[in-house]
Amino acid sequence: MDTFIRRSQAGFGKLTTALTFLSVFVGLLTILELKLGGVSYIGAAFDNVEPTMRWFDTRMFGAIDGNRKENARFAFDMDVDLTGLFNWNTKQVYAYVTIDYDTMSTSSGLINQNSLVIWDTIIESPDRANLTMKNARSKYSVYDIQSAFGSLNREVSISLRWNIQPRLGFLSYGVTRSKNQMKVVLPRKPRSKTRSAKRVVSQTPPVETSS
Amino acid sequence: MASEAQKEASSVTAPVVVRGNAGYLNPKRIRKSLTQLLSVCMMFVSGYMMYQSAGVIANSASPAVVVLSGSMEPAFQRGDILFLWNNERNVNIGDVVVYDTGSRTIPIVHRVVHEHHNANKQLLLTKGDNNERNDIGLYENGRIYLDRQRDITGGVVKGYVPKLGYITILLAENPKFKILFLGGMLLLHLMSGD
């Protein structure tokens, strides 16, 4: 009995150590495989990005102390193939569209850098990783720290980012290369409480990617 | 020589019952038991030290956490273990962070969906993948943002091991399992000590 328990304890200890090293190895191998697979060269094409602005006065939409907050929603076309993000250790891919823009902080005079998620999806199978969407609506209504969002003629850029959730190991992140450098000028002010805004889109010529 | 003599003496003269009592009162046996006790203590202390050292290196109040709720499904399920890192000055959009709100004792694991930063500070809005709404309802005192320096006490999720943490959930939530588990450990230890 004595030797049996001692042996099983020692065996269990060895097993734990071995599994720990194996997990780290699997994690590193997966990262290496993704890097070699060229996941940082995946391109995404955006088009027809149309913002609409509304006022909201609930806390859920960023309004505090009764000051209403300017919220933006977007319609957009997107074409991207994320099949390359899937391998034997991919549990799911979280794909998210963000808008990024800079502002000047009114209090400190510092430059603020801002990113907001306007749309996301969870992909659990490579069969569903090809995303082609026409006139898709953003899932989330987004707002800035300041109460006015669009009224400063603010220019935002749109991009698709991804996060790979492995079955075991390290989470990895990346951003797709935009085939069209899409910049959108947010309209100046919501005209009414319901719907508003004319879109202004400035689009630089498509940039060829070497993928 | 001495031990041989002892062995001979005991096998010849001492009856079984007396030998048993003598065995437990034997200073050598007592010393052995104390050493065993010490080794068990060492095991617990070294485990605790390793966890705390990892916390210092990762700059995190809890460098490894077990997922308790389903708000991040299907990415994280109940019982999954997450490894955290809290040394970056700013967190990125889409990162999964572990934060504390003053009103709740259990830290929350959710994803960053709004991110604003300048040279001084960073403000964040979070949301669970499996939740319809953002986390503003969870924040304290009518706040609508988390402060990166103040509230992200756990850090950013970097590593993932599925299911292995379920044993701690069972221990915490099921008293019968707790007694069975701890009793079993004790029994196993006593048996291996004999």
TrEMBL record, chain A:
The keyword Transmembrane helix applies. It is a single-pass type II membrane protein. InterPro entries: SPC3. Residues 201-211 have a biased composition (Polar residues). GO terms for cellular component: signal peptidase complex. Residues 186-198 have a biased composition (Basic residues). Keywords: Endoplasmic reticulum, Membrane, Signal-anchor, Transmembrane, Transmembrane helix. It is found in: Endoplasmic reticulum membrane. Its main location: endoplasmic reticulum. Residues 186-211 are annotated as: Disordered. The chain crosses the membrane at residues 12-32. Belongs to the SPCS3 family. Essential component of the signal peptidase complex (SPC) which catalyzes the cleavage of N-terminal signal sequences from nascent proteins as they are translocated into the lumen of the endoplasmic reticulum. Essential for the SPC catalytic activity, possibly by stabilizing and positioning the active center of the complex close to the lumenal surface. Essential for viability. This is Signal peptidase subunit 3. It comes from Starmerella bacillaris (Yeast).
From TrEMBL, chain B:
Its EC number is 3.4.21.89. Keywords: Endoplasmic reticulum, Hydrolase, Membrane, Protease, Signal-anchor, Transmembrane, Transmembrane helix. GO terms for molecular function: serine-type endopeptidase activity; signal peptidase activity. The keyword Transferase does not apply. It is an enzyme of class 3 (hydrolase). Component of the signal peptidase complex (SPC) composed of a catalytic subunit SEC11 and three accessory subunits SPC1, SPC2 and SPC3. The complex induces a local thinning of the ER membrane which is used to measure the length of the signal peptide (SP) h-region of protein substrates. This ensures the selectivity of the complex towards h-regions shorter than 18-20 amino acids. SPC associates with the translocon complex. Belongs to the peptidase S26B family. This is Signal peptidase complex catalytic subunit SEC11.
